[in-house]
Amino acid sequence: MTKPFLSVENLVVDYHVPGGTFRAVDDVSFAVDKGKTIAVVGESGCGKSTVAKALMRLVTPAGGRIVLDGTDLAALSEAKLRPLRSKFQMVFQDPYGSLDPHLTAQEIVAEPLKLQGVRSKAERHKEAAKLIDQVGLPAKSLDRHPSEFSGGQRQRIGIARALASKPELLVCDEATSALDVSVQAQVLRLLKSIQEETGITYVFISHNLGVVQEISDSVMVMQRGKLVESGSTASVLTAPKEDYTRKLRRAALDPSTMRGLKPRHVVRSLALKGA
Amino acid sequence: MSLSDTATPSAGGLPGAQPSRTPSPSAVTKELIAKAGATRRRNAAKWKLRIGAVCTLIVIIPILLAQVLPLPDANHQDLSARRLAPLVDGHLFGTDQLGRDLLSRVLHGGQVSLTIGILAVVVSGAIGILLGAAAGYFGGWVDTVVSRLLEAQMSLPLLMMLLLVVALFGPSIPVITFVIAIAQWPEVARLTRSMVLVEREKPYVSAARILGLHRIQILIQHIIPNVIKQATLVVLLLLAQAVLLESALSFLGAGPQRPFATWGRIISDGQDYITTSWWMVTLPGLVIVLMVVGVNLLGDGLRDRPRRKKKGA
Amino acid sequence: MNAQPETQSHTEPALLEVRDFQVELITDAGIIRAVDSVNFSIHRGETVTIIGESGSGKSTTAMGILRLLPDDLAVLSGTVLIDGVDVVAEPKAIGKVRGRTVALIPQDPMTALSPVHSIGSQLSEAIRIAGAASKDKDAVRARAIRLLEQVHIPTPEVQLKKYPHQLSGGMLQRVLIAISLASEPQLLVADEPTSALDVTVQAGILDLLLELQEQRGIGILMITHDLGVARLISDRINVMKDGSFVESGDVQQIVEHPSTEYTRSLLAAVPVLGPWDETPAGTGDATGPTSQTDNTALTSTGAQHD
Fold first, then answer.
1. ipTM of predicted complex
2. Which residues on B lie below 8 Å from C73 (Cβ)?
3. pTM value surpassing 0.90
């Protein structure tokens, strides 16, 4: 049995709030194999974004291990972590705030290359142009600033930037949630093709079960910081065991399965079951 | 916007059975456009810019050219031509109680006043932006120290404090410049700090951290370039305040000493003759007003200019 | 197809009738035709949805109909008859119907209420403006409590004193619906009422809207980008793109047999979840879908994130 590429064990993340600490992530464990995708699902406040931040070491976990390809990232100091950072990158939810507004698309994508040690500016820009092309944007995008792009295009630039570091793990924190449904479909296709080409591993944070079904091999469901259920996407979404997972599943409105005019029963049962 | 998003065209882009319609006539009339908010704002900004630029240039250009203009020496006394009214005997602004040509004094004095003002503003801008950005970005004790310093200074009566410093260190130009810079940095710092607090929370800053950039690198390469434009606008507006502060100091006798004749000193010298020779106080005062109003309008116009969005890819 | 196919003949006049409605915006970038000649109508007990992606003009249509767009920005033309009153031809006439015959449920519940006033005071203000109760403080308070009960908010007397930041998104949306009901409107305009809410909370809000429609026969104009929401609560759907309707028709017709490429691609882009095993695992589960206790009806799904 091969060891999983990413293994998170007993992760705990606390936030300091006036009046004490708030435990955003409470003893969460999961694992994902190389080249596969795990989705983290839950509603607002469940802690899934905090899990993403912990994986990226934007916050320091209060406890637990984050073992990526054999190395525990959770306890490393920033200095020891820095040379490893290129191995794991993130795509953010907000296309409008995730790109530096005063840089051009090319500069944004070239920046990680500088940190990789690519000294020549011409070399960096050439590589950046290649990446921008790989995510499906035309060459004339290179000199444009983020304000000149649509939401979907900005997400593509964000993906190109993340890929510039040649990461082995990519965390997508609600990367398609702010996009129109047709653009979302295009971005998901792009992510899947990148995974096929490069064998990159994804952790995909989302609240949208349909997207999760599209993109992930396994899924874990979170509620109020705790892990509720996990397993392969197929089994969790078609035969959920836990009440909360069933509730989420029932609340997902799928136009293709609704029958009749104004089928109120679809939501009435949810409204009646309560918390 | 959505389907035509990428370079790869989606299959069958145009809706199939859509019959072509002639577009309905527009209901927008010239009258409505003239009354529209966007038009009014754009015109307001345009006029502020124009008027501000004109006022500022009317004052600044002669000051810059003071050396080459055919004017009598600013300190040349002519006791036979004392307190002449404006436009008499070739003195455009008249003369003061020692027969010195007022226009020449105002222009040469303006050189000193403006130099002090610009230097002070540059120094206060630099200090304010750096400290404000540091306070906003690093938070913690850096923020505590800077913010308390800021607040302490803003709570002191400004003019009293400046007079005290001048009394201690003497009224030389470097001291005056420094003193005015110290007076103004809190406002710049406070504005920069709040802008940096907003930028700091944006995901592009997190993205830079994930890349592995050091915090100082993030501050200098990412945050400051995004706040500097708005910060420098405030600094421009502070130029007017700096000139006024310098005038106030000179008026009170704490400004650069003779032979330098700054605007404040000229007005101060003319105090005793307000009722008899009104031009000695009023004309330099009007020049100050013109410059301050001009710079403020210019700053407002630059700030209110509509952002033109360029068409995307 | 832009014309509304008449699948039902209505004997009563429409609550809302929109003909050749156009909204042009005067901006720095020029004149933008945000809404380009749209036609639709809403009768009692009907829900008509305008569905579109961002920038399609759907929210602008709703705001334009209610004359909530700034006068120095938007130029309206065409005909909008609200309960027979043309609000485009007579701009002042909107005051008679807005907040009375027609009410708005705004988009983001977290920011749609004043943060410095209590729920009770905002609800009372709506009741007084609507003229639906006498000026007597007790009568207004009683009506406020009744409205909160109608939207299934538990312990309404307690909630009246609370401030918006103390309530969850779902509860706030219910409060907004209560406010909109203060004048006993015949038409509700719901502008993306669930976009900012979690899916489980969304279900409760949609159920509430369907219930209100069943009980009172109100008409609903729903604005959304979510096809699942549209399919659930609409009688008819208008698909909007770049300011005009590319397709209009009965909801089942549009979802099952779309006739334009755009609608087809929009439907195709929605990730399909497919069927699932709805019977609960384990027979000892007392809270299966078939058991309904009356108590749970009062438990607000919006309260779970409090």
1. 0.91
2. 36-38
3. no
